[in-house]
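User: quick one
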Amino acid sequence: SAVISQKPSRDICQRGTSLTIQCQVDSQVTMMFWYRQQPGQSLTLIATANQGSEATYESGFVIDKFPISRPNLTFSTLTVSNMSPEDSSIYLCSVGEGPYNEQFFGPGTRLTVL
Amino acid sequence: ILNVEQSPQSLHVQEGDSTNFTCSFPSSNFYALHWYRWETAKSPEALFVMTLNGDEKKKGRISATLNTKEGYSYLYIKGSQPEDSATYLCASPTGANNLFFGTGTRLTVIP
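Assistant: Done. Structure below.
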């Protein structure tokens, strides 16, 4: 299974600023996924990052708020733009394996917005 | 959007006790059912991917069953240990990519 690293592991940010989260995989993968978990909520898919094309965003998430880069097959970034306290969450990247997309997750980024 | 629900929301058990919790999901257009364990300060870890009605999977003291006709899965932990303390998540995809997660069951095993 893939080994995934993320940074930063946590951050405290001011309202109105932006934070870029990096995700590195130890093998080449076609698709990478970005999730967030707000306090008390389900783990929710933000977008699927494909190498060589624009990310595919889920309902309720837009590119202006969560721009994603996927410059190669082992790396992706998620930016949380113009942050508000509602963006305080754990953000996870993952890759899927097998026909049923079993997920392998990075360690997560715990974001607090003041 | 798929409505995946888990119960209970949290659970405290004594070390050595066995326990179980539930994941319910829409039974129509079933594709697969995933279970993950998420320990504090670690990555969520895949436990099982289940696809067939009547499936039963086991990993050590943890097992899971699946009923796709009625739309539920049970996760069982036999002889709970403090290291089993974690949030247990289930998820069901609508197709190949998009997984919908439940809110999880937070298990605390008291030594």
